[in-house]
Amino acid sequence: GAGVSQSPSNKVTEKGKDVELRCDPISGHTALYWYRQRLGQGLEFLIYFQGNSAPDKSGLPSDRFSAERTGESVSTLTIQRTQQEDSAVYLCASSLSGISGYTFGSGTRLTVV
Amino acid sequence: QKEVEQNSGPLSVPEGAIASLNCTYSDRGSQSFFWYRQYSGKSPELIMFIYSNGDKEDGRFTAQLNKASQYVSLLIRDSQPSDSATYLCAVTIEGGYQKVTFGTGTKLQVIP
């Protein structure tokens, strides 16, 4: 596609429910990244994919968070048993390589009530 | 020490002035340096990247890199109110792959 597409754009969920966030990267971009941005805060790295493998999962905050990627395309970030502190904007980015910089999607704003 | 440090601001400049945004980084092996602009409620967008010591100009924007002093800066000439945003400095840290680490950003306010 022309850009990085994320869905849904907004998600309100009840505490304890599971949510799935989707990212469709730019076609041909082998690298894919997930970040979290809490209100008024900086970008918090979550996970990096190269193809469908995840060589760096160091930013996933707990075992409630998981992610997968199908080949060099769509990725899903799953948050199980959501907590209020999970409320944030979840940003996906893709790149040909890190040295070329990232293109970000418009994000998913997650609100846990 | 944070890997990438920026003054959070806000940095206020009058319209037409030069805005100077600074960033320092801790890893001497850092290779690539980026500036992203993030408008309130929007996602970051890449505006400049620089790999070599010195200056790189693109329109009203100039990125400056000094690897010996471990800082990178962004100058915005003829600042416009539309430049008001948070500017994120990002650096690739050596670690097997080109992982990008972001600073927390400097908020710029251009006063008409």
List keywords for this structure.
heterodimer; A: 113 residues; mainly beta; 0% helix; B: 112 residues; 6-stranded mixed β-sheet; 5-stranded antiparallel β-sheet
Describe the structure.
The complex is a heterodimer of chains A (about 110) and B (about 110). Chain A has no helices and eleven strands. With about 110 residues, chain A is mainly beta. The model of chain A has no long low-confidence stretch (mean pLDDT about 95). Chain B is mainly beta and about 110 residues long. Chain B is built from no helices and eleven strands. The chains are: A mainly beta (about 110), B mainly beta (about 110). The interface between A and B is medium-sized, with 24 and 23 residues.
In short:
The complex is a heterodimer of chains A (113) and B (112). Chain A is mostly beta strands.
Topology:
The complex is a heterodimer of chains A (113) and B (112).
Chain A: E1 5-7, E2 10-13, E3 19-24, E4 31-37, E5 44-50, E6 53-56, E7 65-69, E8 75-79, E9 88-95, E10 103-104, E11 108-112
Parallel strand pairs in A: 2-11
Antiparallel strand pairs in A: 1-3, 3-8, 4-5, 4-9, 5-6, 7-8, 9-10, 9-11
Chain B: E1 4-5, E2 11-14, E3 19-25, E4 33-38, E5 45-50, E6 54-58, E7 61-66, E8 71-76, E9 85-93, E10 99-102, E11 106-111
Parallel strand pairs in B: 2-11
Antiparallel strand pairs in B: 1-3, 3-8, 4-5, 4-9, 6-7, 7-8, 9-10, 9-11
